[in-house]
Amino acid sequence: MAAFSGRFPATRLRRTRATQWSRRLVAETRLGPNDLIWPVFITAGDADQPIESMPDVSRFCLASIADQARMAADLGIPVIALFPNTPTALRSDDGGEALNPKNLVCQAIRSIKKAVPEIGIMADVALDPYTSHGQDGLVDRHGTVMNDATIDVLIRQAVVQANAGCDIIAPSDMMDGRVEAIRAALDQAGHQSVQIMAYGAKYASAYYGPFRDAVGSGGLLKGDKKTYQMDPANSDEALREVALDIAEGADSVIIKPGMPYLDIISRVRQSFNIPIFAYQVSGEYAMLQAAARAGALDLDAAMLEALLAFRRAGADGIISYFAPRAARLLNGSSA
User: Fold this and answer.
1) CATH number at residue 123
2) Considering 75, 159, 201, 249, which has the largest number of Cβ atoms within 10 A of its Cβ?
3) Residues 252-303: tens digit of each pLDDT
């Protein structure tokens, strides 16, 4: 074999890639259980219910929700986010069940706080799990979602959840001005320490289908949500939305969905000094599961790569249905 006749490169980037310990040493982006929020669905009744469109995900009954929170805390997951599947009989045009201090979310909050006080609890503020029409707010006789009338209900919903012991209020409704109104209502009710993690840029996305199945609103939805959720074509608008939420008192913001909007996460990171969370939504979860079950990819490897991508783009944390599976792997145990 002929000797190499050229000049050897002084810089060899492969040196630091050559061993696993070295790759760990120079990694620019870190991912750990502390970066994860686990979204959990709650159901009425005495038994957990598997969700067909989301493999390995179930709606948990109130009898088992505290055990799930304990498992999450033991894995090092700092926050659990709660979403109810409200029985059809309790849904109404005005979403009044959202204001019931004994609704599924409030009962779950109290159960978790009693059993696992060290874990943070996040509760969604929006009306779609409670309305008979599936919209996030109140609608007029023309089917138009009413912004200000909806806010009047949302602030009461937020206070009800805070009274139950919720640590983080997460307005996902995308009504204009709701963060300021919720902050004022929480403070007036004595909940100055309750955080607001606002859905700063929530897009009218096609990736939410399995979630709507999980909370039971998919078959009820009349129309679409394009008049209040963001247009997927827009990114400058996302910066305006986030800026407004920050000005109104948000402690952190969510970008939703995650993977199709990595550019939005990056732009928000570059523009604002505030904690940012990516929501790896139900459609993203279902796609990875389907590809893995078809033998097209390794689920654990693809899952961790996707989660790392959110951190690399600038997210401080990720809301993901994979959270327990990822935490086990990151802790060095089997998923």
Assistant:
1) 3.20.20.70
2) 201
3) 999 999 999 999 999 999 999 999 999 999 999 999 999 999 999 999 999 9
* Catalytic residue from among 102, 114, 202, 226: 202
Helix, strand, or coil (residue 291): helix
User: Looking at the domain assignment, is residue 13 inside a domain?
Assistant: no
In terms of residue numbers, what domain contains 161?
Answer: 30-330
Contact (Cβ atoms closer than 8 angstroms) between residue 215 and residue 128: yes
Overall domain count for the chain: 1
Tell me if 34 sits within 8 A of 76, measured CB to CB.
yes
pLDDT > 70: what percent of the chain? 98
For residues 258 and 244, what is the distance between their CA atoms, to the nearest angstrom? 21
In a domain, 132, yes or no: yes
Tokens of 181: 């109104």
Reply yes or no on whether 114 is catalytic: no
Q: Does any domain span residue 154?
A: yes
User: Is 284 inside any structural domain?
Assistant: yes
**DSSP-derived secondary structure letter, 285:** H
- Can 225 be counted among the known catalytic residues? no
